[in-house]
Amino acid sequence: MKRKAYYARKIKGATHLLFYRHHRKPGVKGWELRRKLGSDYPKVLKILDSYLEKLDLQVNTIFEEPVPTDKPTPSQLDKARFYVTLRGDITSEEVKMMGWRIDDIAGLATAISCILSKKGKASRTDVEGLLRNKLPGWRVDMNMNRYISSGYLAEDENNQLYLDWRTRAEIDRKTLVDLLLGAEG
Amino acid sequence: MCQSVEERNLDPFIVDVDDILEVVREYFPEWESPDELCLDAEAIERLASVIGLQSSWVKHQSTSLYTDPFLLEDKIRRLGKEELAALFLKAWRPIVELEQLSPHSLAGAVSYWRNLLPTNERWLKRASQKTDLGATTRKELVKQRILAEKAFSEELQTFWEELKQSVKGGEKIRYWDFIGAETFAETMKRAYMTSFLITYGYATLEIHRLEEEVFIKPFKKPRNIVGSKQLVSIPVSISIEEWMKWKRGELD
Question: Which residues numbered 66-95 in A keep a CB inside 8 Å of some CB on B?
Answer without folding.
Answer: 83-87, 89-92, 95
